[in-house]
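User: Show me a protein chain along with its predicted structure.
Assistant: Here is one chain, sequence first, then structure tokens.
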Amino acid sequence: MHDFLNLQEMEFDYFAYLWLPLMIFFARILDVSIGTIRIILVSKGQKRLAPLLGFLEVLIWIIAIGQIMENLDNWMCYLFYAAGFAAGNYIGMVIEEKIALGIVGLRLVTGKPAYELVHELSERGYGITHMSATGAQGPVNVLFMTVSRKNLSKLIDIVNEFNP
């Protein structure tokens, strides 16, 4: 009756244009996120975990790029591949921020007396080196600390409480 509304003629290939691009998208998120963490572990000298993550990263990438090569005429795969790469960079940075690997060297220069702050930091187990110095506008206190990135916000809170 209404041939132009015949849905059988307008069949949409859900796998090729929806599921496959989504799988490529999530594969790219996974491999790029793993790559971000792997690079951090390499810089930290993690000789056991970094190669394992590298293996997984490349294996996932090969599978994703293989699907692209098998579907060269599917522009949705290209878009989802690129979007997965972008999302993977973002998610990798968020993961790295959450696990906060590494240490930070902190140097605090204050014109206020720092004895209370030094005492509080020592009581809480922070390693600290304190010295008096002269700055451009007169006497200052200089504090040197090394802290894990996970504890940096706690340290900043203590500094703001005792020597804002």
